[in-house]
Amino acid sequence: MWGIQGLLRGFWAPDEARFVYVAGEMAAEGHFFVPYRSGVFYAHKPPLLFLLMNLFALPFGGQINGFVARLPSLIGAFLSLYATASIATRLGGAKAAWRAIAVLSTTFLFWQVNSMGQMDALLTGFIMSAIALLWPDVKVATASSRCQRQDAVATFLAGLCMGCGTLLKGPVAFAIPILALLAAKIFSQTSWRFNPKIFITFLGLLIPPAIWLTGAYFENPPDGYFKELLYDQIFKRAGGNFGHVKSPFYFLWHFPIEFMPWTLALPFVGRAKASRQAENGRLTGTVSPYRMLLAWMLAIIIFFSIFTSKRNLYILAAYPAAAIMVALAWDDLKPRLLNRCALAFLTAFFYAGIIVYPVLDAFKTPFTIRDEVAPYLASDDAGKPRLALVGTNGEIYALYAGVKGITFGIQGNRALEDSRGEMGRFAEYVEANDRGAAIIGATYFNAHHGDEIVALMESKGGFYEIRNMRVGQKRGDKSDKLLLWGDPAF
Predict the structure, then answer these.
(1) Is residue 178 domain-shared with residue 236, that is, in the same domain?
(2) What are the distances in angstroms from CA 326 to CA 55, 83, 270, 342?
(3) How far apart are CA 479 and CA 446, in angstroms?
(4) Which among 302, 325, 358 is the end of a domain?
(5) Can you tell me whether residue 135 is helix, strand or coil?
(6) pTM above the 0.85 mark?
(7) Does residue 490 lie within any of the structural domains?
(8) For the chain: N or C, fewer Cβ within 10 A?
(9) What's the total number of domains in the chain?
(10) Domain, as residue range, for 439
(11) Whether 283 and 183 share a structural domain
(12) Same domain, yes or no: 352 and 399
């Protein structure tokens, strides 16, 4: 479902290209606890994914290829499916586990995220592992159910999963499991019992961040790194300062669309739930598994609906709960039809990955940029070639050009130390280099400084050329610009 297709396409902007680029710069510069992007510290995310990419690249001579970049997501997919199967087994037996795996694997968003070389797939794997390890010890109203009591090792491992997730993408790694488990526990209507082993969970949670903070301290992080990572990226991002501002009802239509094709089965789950409750109505001391799963799912959706900043990826941990609900209702719906649908969907998603993705790859990656810029690249003080990036982060361009990018504008939301601005800095760079190659963001070029850049090139004299880059959906005036100047034979 996921492992093969990672070998069949390149790295796509924005996330995949950015993370592979940062991981590559981490290895080249030796900053393994404080990542950098184009020479400026990168505090948007903690460093675990970049460390894993470099670790998995060791057998390949340090080369981060498609398999290496997406191996963390493949591991995340396995953890998510295994944890989902574990919970489904306790709620409905082995058949429910296999059905939940089939449903979750062929849910559009889950399948898409696990095919990308970014953080959310592995994060969901850590979250689901923690939920499975700490799942409430209650008896549910299904004949094949079985309980599993948490021991000290399980609670420690749950904390360790949350700690690793925190080192991957911040506090959501422990907030989501705690929220989902509390909702399931409360709505199971069982008596609350304090478990002293919870302290072991917190011990596991603290270990990964403690190791990272110690390493970062000895790498002498620049001023502002921890403030941006631990404050700005949590609180300002939640408030929409970094974009993705959406309506409070954003997930109410995103979830049904991206749980397709299994959204069509959800309306019938309620009827199966009522039938199952009537059948088991005489059982005492039992709770409805549907109630626990629905509480888990809604708690996550409502929680992220509160914040201004929203992305469909944020509620990915709600999808396993919905998948288990469908799996538990399977025999009360049309099992023969659902069996055939599951096989058809598995086949369709598999072929979509190995056929559709490679076709799209031609539109998503700048394969030709290396040859285009090679004769024009200017060098830094160490004699290493560099690609200028103006009005864009441009990791995908620097990545495929095989060089390090150099930026002239604000990165990391820090104020500029002087009044020259991005255009002024770039003008100085042009004057200082007889030849060069630069990528200029489309919005920046069209709305701000396109005329100034043309005037700058004409005043310098000699050869220059501006081309449209064809990456993703950007075409024509929406294309980022490739600027080349100077004598290529210089």
Answers:
(1) yes
(2) 38, 16, 10, 12
(3) 10
(4) 358
(5) coil
(6) yes
(7) no
(8) C
(9) 2
(10) 369-485
(11) yes
(12) no
Same domain, 304 and 406: no
Residues 385 and 328 in one domain: no
- For residue 32, tell me if it sits in a domain: yes
User: Within this chain, do residues 98 and 183 fall inside the same structural domain, yes or no?
Assistant: yes
DSSP for 332-370, written as a single string: GS-HHHHHHHHHHHHHHHHHIIIIIHHHHHHHH--TTHH
> Tokens 């992080």 label which residue?
221
Going by C-beta distance under 8 Å and a sequence separation of 6 or more, which residues neighbour residue 145? 90, 91, 92, 93, 139, 289
> Helix, strand, or coil here: 465?
strand
Amino acid at 264: L
Both 351 and 374 in one domain: the answer is no
Answer whether residue 403 is part of any domain.
yes
User: At a CB cut-off of 8 Å and minimum separation 6, what does 439 contact?
Assistant: 387, 388, 389, 390, 392, 394, 397, 469, 480, 481, 482, 483
Long-range contacts for 256-260 (Cβ within 8 Å, ≥24 apart)? Answer: 257/108, 258/107, 258/108, 258/109, 258/312, 259/107, 259/108, 259/109, 259/319, 259/322, 260/107, 260/108
- Cβ-contact 150, 137 below 8 angstroms: yes
Residue 364 lies in a domain: no
Alpha carbon 362 to its chain's center = 23
Q: Rounded CA gap, 32 and 208, in Å?
A: 14
Same domain membership, residue 308 and residue 429? no
Domain end residue (candidates: 323, 358, 393): 358
